[in-house]
Fold:
Amino acid sequence: MKRALVCGAGGFIGGHLVKKLKREGYWVRGVDIKAHEFASTQADEFLLLDLREPENCRIALTLPAPLPPNLGRSERATFDEVYQLAADMGGMGFIHSAECEIMHNNVLINVHMTHQAATMGVPRYFYSSSVCVYRDMQPGEPELTEAEAIPANPDNEYGWEKLYSERIAQAYGRRYGMTVRIARFQNCYGPEGTWTGGREKAPAAICRKVAEAPDAGTIPVWGDGAAVRSYTYVDDTVDGIYRLMHSELEGAVNIGNPEYVTVKELVETVAEVAGKRINVEWVQGPVGVQSRNFSNERIYSTGWRARVPLVEGIKQTYPWIEAQVQRSKDAEERGEGETMRG
Ligand code: NAD
Structure:
């Protein structure tokens, strides 16, 4: 039985990755600075640790002694596979208002986790990067390949930190013979992710606003609706992580749904799924880049494809967020609003 460590298992993609690894038959330890608020499937073991501290990274990477009986004998004292998804992050609102926290906290997590993993002999290490490493694009531009992240000009500090942490992982991989796999995710969405509180990303924020609005109501949305994005359903993202981790692909690899839509089209899709007529008031806010268009040829070479079209993914996501909105309303009516939303 293989042993996997998922860092950031209390978060959205990490929580779904734990479920995937359990389905694949792994023994999984999750680690995070907080417990998962929603995830229905749990890791075999979950440790609450702040991974900005090197000693906590060492503890996270050390297998339990004695090993649980179902793990059999171990050649080494650490994990077969480490998936590093822990990050201080959120949607555009958070990325533009918390530059220092993002650069400080995420560099510390990645510097210490990569160093400890490599020096403790982890054979295979996954790092979760982002398409935020790329420059802004104009609608209609041809696809950017992974190599075209350099010369670098990311739109935000989050992207610079990701580029640096990709390079840390690769440098340690070369020095210590650790196999390193790096995914650059496009926007990922689905149930059991942050949906309120300021860190939520566009699909979750729009689902929440539509769920809160009456039929024929008006919701505020940042920008003018023309920005072009693609959104990858979380099951596709974790399938991509798993295939990439077990592939021979060196260097960074884009993982994204090639279905590009404007923000206006995203709102229309959510409204259609909700069965509501929705008006939009376009307001000033941190929109981020104008457009996106990335090559997925490298991940396609593993047999991966995005299987879930946007409308199908929203059909899974919207009812879950609508239920959270209802739960939160009910709690507010009982005078427990802060607990639910905090
Ligand atoms: P998330 O915020 O839901 O999960 C990240 C987790 O890291 C959180 O549970 C958080 O508590 C944990 N964390 C933060 N600081 C920590 C610390 N000091 N010690 C231990 N744990 C800590 O985010 P997500 O959407 O699941 O993203 C996972 C990874 O994928 C991140 O690296 C993110 O940058 C990357 N990514 C996500 C997207 C997306 O659309 N969701 C897109 C591109 C890249």
